[in-house]
Amino acid sequence: MKAQELIAQARTQQRPALDEQAGKALLAEYRIAVPQSRTVKSVDEVDAAFTQLRAPVVVKIMSPDILHKSDAGGVKVGMKSAAEVKDAITAMAASPQIKAARIDGYLIEEMAPVGQEIVIGGLRDPYFGPLVMVGLGGIFVEVLRDVSFRICPITRIDAEEMIDDLKGAAILAGARGRKPASRAAIVDALLKVGGENGLLMTHADDIQEADINPMIVSESAAVAVDARFILR
Ligand code: ADP
Ligand code: MG
């Protein structure tokens, strides 16, 4: 589905946000890498979906009522068989928070190559228009608020500076025995999101907030494994 259709579909369904699947489809339209995935409504559909994917896979709850899937027991990673996937879905469906929610289905997706987790975000400012943000994943963003913002559209030089502005930049470069995260892949993703013909500029009238959290960056690639877009 084309980018504008994904947004139109959410509006037709009177949803305030694109769900994870639609969000990733939007990213894919901008050639940002996302995992191969299938959605299922029930365990009966798992066998067919699983054979089309490369294990190990992740299973995630899809619900307009659940924003933090892990907190709700709605994410399970590293499953190597269809049987494991079915067990995970059965366990999820039994969890109290998920029982109380509207369920769109379950997303089964391939695991991204191992790497460092970063966050790329976007925000529509009433005065400046779209802003793009980058940060390191997990506690770096949530606790230390080590993030860097720019007004869109950004250039390649802006994207490079955004990365250098992070206090944790050395971690991305491979400090303390970590494998370096591909800087080129991060710059590329930032430009696809916040650059001149990027996602945020193109959809400035429609997108209030964007959150790719996390994007997993290996030595050679950056894959968006979670995505959420709040519409204006
Ligand atoms: P939420 O943020 O709603 O709890 P996520 O989709 O971000 O759920 O998944 C939680 C965590 O699981 C991610 O931060 C990441 O560490 C891991 N994860 C999710 N999807 C994948 C994937 N496709 N490949 C590898 N790790 C993943
Ligand atoms: Mg997430």
In brief, what are we looking at here?
With 232 residues, the protein is α+β, with helices and mostly antiparallel strands. The protein has 10 helices and 11 strands. Helix 7 packs across helix 9 (183-194).
Written description of the protein model:
It is a single chain. With 232 residues, this protein is α+β, with helices and mostly antiparallel strands. The protein has 2 domains: 36-110, ATP-grasp fold, A domain (Dna Ligase, domain 1), CATH 3.30.1490.20; 116-231, ATP-grasp fold, B domain (D-amino Acid Aminotransferase, Chain A, domain 1, 2-Layer Sandwich), CATH 3.30.470. It contains 10 helices and 11 strands. It has helices spanning 3-12, 20-29, 46-51, 82-94, 96-99, 139-142, 156-165, 169-172, 183-194, 199-202; strands at 17-18, 37-40, 57-62, 75-79, 105-110, 116-125, 129-136, 147-151, 207-217, 222-224, 227-231. The strands form 2 sheets. Strands 1, 6, 7, 8, 9, 10 and 11 form a 7-stranded antiparallel β-sheet that branches. A hairpin with a 3-residue loop joins strand 6 and strand 7 (129-136). Helix 7 (156-165) packs across helix 9. The protein starts with a helix and ends with a strand. 41% of the residues are buried. The mean pLDDT is 96. The structure holds adenosine-5'-diphosphate and magnesium ion (MG). Magnesium ion binds at residues 213, 226.
